[in-house]
Amino acid sequence: MENKIALLKAKIEESVAKAGDSETIEGLRVAFLGKKGEITELLRDLKSVSGEQKKEMGMKINLLKQNAEEKIKARIEEIKNAELQKKIDEAPAYDVTLPCDFKGEGSYHPITLVEREVEDIFRSMGFTVEDYPEVTDDYNCFEALNIPKHHPARDMQDTYYLDNGQLLKTHTSAAQNSIMRKYGAPLRAIFPSRCFRNEATDACHENTFFQMEGMMIDTDISISNLIYFMKTMLSEVFKQDVSVRLRPGFFPFVEPGFELDISCLICGGKGCPSCKNSGWLELCPCGMIHPNVLKAGGIDTDKYTGFAFGLGLTRLAMMRYGIKDIRDLNSGNLKVLSQFVNE
Ligand code: PHE
Q1: What whole-number distance in Å separates Cα of residue 209 and Cα of residue 315?
Q2: Which of 30, 97, 129, 175 is most buried as measured by Cβ atoms within 10 A of its Cβ?
Q3: Which atom of ligand 1 is nearest to the CA of 310?
Q4: Between 171 and 338, whose confidence is greater?
């Protein structure tokens, strides 16, 4: 039997080394290690060996089996790599400097276009543009904004939670605290971002949308500053003089809080189906930053006040380009998305 083992070992080594493709090596695996394979046969033959010898031979066959398994596994890996390399070598050479066949031109997403336009306008008024993560935590999204746990205001902003306790931010206000801590007062910043809410979708609601938050903190900031900045920005975006009005609105992180409406651009304020015959369109919740929020951000409330607004960037893009269904924006449908250009 000892002889048989030695012979089989040599045979395995030789044939495995010679195997040159996946099929052959798989065939060898079955021939040696399969149910009816030669090593399995040997183990079966052990029955006829007696006493001490049986133990010794058993050990030797097991060693042979282990050895064969390792050798075959390593060879399979080598063959796989060689086959892949061959495919790569045989693939037609790809020259990245060749002109491309694609006849059309790429285009920016309508939200990107509007976002850049608004950014330019605010930059020209001394605001910095900030970028904050879409994944944040309960503190930044709610607590630091004067929305304690179990506050009913949380109902309006249900979101998606991660296993680690973090969440997808429901509004760009989630970056207010970090920005206050980063710059202190005085500060002027805008921070656009994608936001998420656990919502059923229809033509006007999406679970994923864009906002642009703005914050200005300084001595003597009042609601008239807020109105001025919003009116200037909107008149630039719509390339016409836009009238605005403020209505009271409740958000725990501003006091007083408002809904800022703009005169309907479709009917010029006379009333039409788009503005539900009111002549006004709701566009931008805003208000004077609540002292609790300033304090949480490390700002001295005896010295500074500030305003914040949460511009609906998605809604602005829809108004600017006359897009009727919000779902088109996330559709990835190039027929829809490639129509928009920045005039
Ligand atoms: N974060 C609020 C929302 O998404 C909007 C808002 C921003 C209101 C800033 C006031 C001030 O609903």
Answers
A1: 9
A2: 175
A3: 7
A4: 171
